């Protein structure tokens, strides 16, 4: 297998070209989504890791698993936006409330012995409320403009400037909100010992932890696709097709 030059790339670029690397980074605590712009070597040092050892783990993972199942970096931009809308936005709106409801029942039964659960439920409820506003802004403002940029580039035409001045303005807001969600789920992970069910947990408690972890992992993919692939492409498309 061809050796990848990890040290010349950011962690976001590495995951964009091979999503299988996300599993290694997640296990090592390297943030490839909200802080995907950090260079590989620096990201390793921030976690007290030897970059050479992390490189070996990435290569070994690739040898075992092959290339990432979804070559997102090869997808056209409009398909990536479709995927985010129909997979991630839909997942948040459908599965989020189900998880919140389950978590509420777990708090009622186990809250006296595990008082941290009340804080977990509060944080998750606030996440769903903030994400609902976040998704609406993407659906109503940012994504329609990205579709317009992509279509103009595909047809070789020009379009008028964005009403907000430049696409970089709403992108900056979305990235700030992404960082807030990343920090919130770091807090939830810390409160739950990384989504682990304790020895006295019932099946519902264990299921709630599993669903929280799955929600967090899906959110990481969601943020990665936007911060590291869709948003940089949107900036480049705008520069190429917007009339001066």
Give the helices and strands, then pairings.
Elements: H1 11-17, H2 21-28, H3 40-46, H4 51-65, H5 77-110, H6 116-155, H7 168-191, H8 203-241
Helix pairs in contact: 1-8, 5-6, 5-8, 6-7, 6-8, 7-8
Please explain how this structure is put together.
The protein has 244 residues and is an all-alpha fold. Helix content is 71%, strand content 0%. It has helices at 11-17, 21-28, 40-46, 51-65, 77-110, 116-155, 168-191, 203-241. α5 runs antiparallel to α8 (203-241) and α6 packs parallel to α8 (203-241). The longest helix has 40 residues, at 116-155.
Defining traits:
mainly alpha, 71% helix, 0% strand
The secondary structure category is mainly alpha
Query: Strand-residue fraction?
Result: under 5%
Helicity, as a percent range = over 70%
End-to-end Cα distance: 45 Å
Short description:
With 244 residues, the protein is an all-alpha fold.
């Amino acid at each position: 297998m061809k050796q990848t030059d990890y040290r010349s790339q950011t962690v976001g670029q590495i995951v964009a070209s091979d999503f299988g690397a996300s599993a290694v980074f997640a296990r090592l605590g390297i943030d490839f989504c909200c802080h995907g712009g950090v260079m590989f070597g620096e990201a390793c040092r921030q976690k007290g890791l030897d970059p050479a050892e992390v490189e070996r783990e990435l290569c070994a993972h690739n040898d075992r698993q092959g290339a990432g199942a979804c070559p997102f970096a090869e997808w056209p931009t409009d398909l990536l936006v479709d995927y985010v809308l129909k997979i991630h936005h839909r997942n948040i709106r459908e599965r989020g409330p189900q998880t919140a409801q389950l978590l509420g029942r777990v708090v009622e039964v186990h809250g006296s012995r595990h008082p941290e659960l009340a804080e977990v439920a509060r944080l998750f409820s606030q996440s769903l409320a903030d994400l609902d506003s976040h998704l609406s802004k993407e659906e109503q403002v940012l994504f329609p403009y990205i579709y317009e940029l992509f279509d103009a580039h595909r047809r070789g035409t020009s379009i008028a400037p964005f009403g907000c001045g430049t696409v970089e303005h709403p992108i900056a807001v979305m990235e700030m909100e992404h960082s807030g969600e990343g920090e919130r789920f770091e807090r939830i992970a810390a409160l739950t010992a990384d989504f682990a069910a304790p020895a006295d947990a019932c099946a519902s408690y264990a299921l709630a932890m599993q669903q929280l972890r799955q929600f967090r992992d899906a959110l990481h993919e969601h943020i990665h696709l936007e911060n590291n692939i869709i948003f940089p492409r949107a900036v480049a498309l705008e520069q190429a097709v917007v009339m001066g």
